[in-house]
Structure prediction request, 333 residues.
Amino acid sequence: MSSIHPQNEEIANAPTLSIVIPCYDEELVLPETLSRLRTLLDDLAEEGAIAAESTLLFVDDGSKDDTYRFLSEAATEDCRVEVLKLSRNFGHQNALFAGLAHSRADFTLSMDADLQDDPAVIRDMLVAAKEGAKVVYGVRRRRDKDRLIKRVPARLYYRILRLVGIEIIEDHADFRLLHRDALNALLQFDEVHLFLRGMVPLIGFPSRIVHYDRAERFAGETKYSPRKMLRLALDGITSFSAAPLHLIAWLGVLVSLSAIGLAIWALIIRLLGHAIPGWASIVVPLYFIGGIQLLSLGVIGIYLSKIYAESKKRPRYIVEAFTRAESSCREQR
Ligand code: UDP
Ligand code: MG
Prediction:
């Protein structure tokens, strides 16, 4: 067709987008999330920013509520909806990775189901991508929507990460757009303990940051229990840095040196004849060193358990079912 209109030509060349959304017991938010994202896909396709074959790829991470039923029905109604059902709950990072691995689009965006990540920002991210960025990070502007109990540890955590030399984009969670090249690079990472926001900066490629205001969770409760959050935080450090192991060695040196100092001090007291036959001078260092030893063993244990898990190479997720968007989707619409 030589008489193709320039605008139509642009639409014909528009890249496909796949939005990956991990869901764990999200039946309360999904109706709203789905309708907003469908509208967004319509609008973006109309504007020529993305191709009409773009999809929404929901990952059901072993939900116990009606999440899967809702998603399956949505997939029969709208051929752009893809549903990847995992055989059980594998956790947010694994579920997200599973979704990413199943995307076939030119650009893949990841976001939470709860509408905390503003879907309207996706348009800005696509613009950044069009200008050449292969990784576009969504970074929240303020954290005041998070409760203090989450905000303060988060700040402290970022500081620790920086201290041990881990490069991470502050206030960026898992709201990001990846070009096919960047996604393929990310999918090469073999590790079992996933901490995607630490891994993505390692793949390189030109990147951009797009700021957004993080909203309140639209409905439902957070699916990150304190235990899951702590595990993610620990993974973030121990999967990317051996600094705690070095710290232990230094701690050992420090304790030994102070023990020598203590011995000299005890000797002086003795020589001066002031020695009081107390047990404190024996018991206190005993407990102190005992504590340090337990702590050190604990840190070594954490790394050892990681090596153990990595050496088993267990699958990071298991797929139970996958409803892929029909290739005839475009004609249907
Ligand atoms: N999620 C998941 N598996 C889990 C926990 C969470 O797929 O085991 C999903 C959840 O449905 C949501 C996203 O991960 O789409 C982020 O979770 P949430 O919003 O509860 O975390 P928060 O924003 O409170 O840190
Ligand atoms: Mg959330």
